[in-house]
Structures are given as structure tokens and as C-alpha cells.
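Memo to structure team: turn this sequence into C-alpha cells by end of day. - J.P.
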Amino acid sequence: MDENNEKQYLYLNIWSLIPFQIDCRDKELQVFSFLLQTANMTRMIRKSIIALGTTHYVRSAIDSQADLKAFRDKPTPILFAGLFAMAFSYVIGWPVIAILGYLSVKLDNPWLVGVGGPFAYGMSHLVFLLGMYLSGTFYGVVFLRWFTRVTMEKLLTWADR
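Reply from structure team:
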């Protein structure tokens, strides 16, 4: 296949990959149909953003100018306990499973890792969730309110154009 035929083959394959609702042979009508569908999709996205912007959570985050000042305060002992629990969950996660696997091979007892592995993994998840609960509730809410305000301000600016 020479170079001209290869370019023409690529050109036809690119056009055949774009889904169009109007089945026609004219390339200009296909391009117009694609642009029309894109404009409809953009209009739908803009309406969805504006609808999200009218919710109580977004309005209160924007009106109160939610920021990250809470992260400047001195951490509480509960925050440190939560961070310790999350760090400890990594210690009782995969390293314990690896040790159980090693002992299972050494002692020729597959039940050791078969039962102990899922138990250790489950305990690791529970300890991590406890740490998230202790340290993440207040700071998570502060961060999500700030992130919502910043993101929705930018999106609403785009949608109101």
C-alpha cells in the first residue's frame, strides 16, 4: 500500500469512528451534526452546574466563604489518636499477612494464613476506619466545604458565560 492510499484509509477510518445520529454520506452534514450534538451536550452540562449551584450546601459554602483556617489551629489529642490508629493499621495490614504467610509455610499449616490473613486484613480496615473517624470528621468537613466553594465558583463562572 503506497503512502497516498494509507492516508486516505486513515481518513476514512477516523470518520467511521465518530457516532452520528444523521446517517448521511456528506461529510459537511456529519460535521454539522457532530457540532450540534456537542452544543446540546454543553448546554446540558451548564444547566446541571447551575442546578448544583442552587443547592443549600453549595450556596452556604459560597456565602460563608469557606476556607482552610481550621488547619492552622493546634491539633487536638483526638487528631493525634486518629493519626496513630491509621498508621498502626498499616502495621497490622500487609506485614502481619506476610508474617502469617511465612509462618504458614514454615509450620506447614495453610490454615494459619487462610484464616488469620483475612482476619488481620479486616482488623486493619477497622482500625483505619476508626482513625479516619477520630481524625477526619472535622477536617474532612472543612476541606470538602472549601473544595466545594472553590470548584463551584469556577464552574459557575464558566456556566454563566
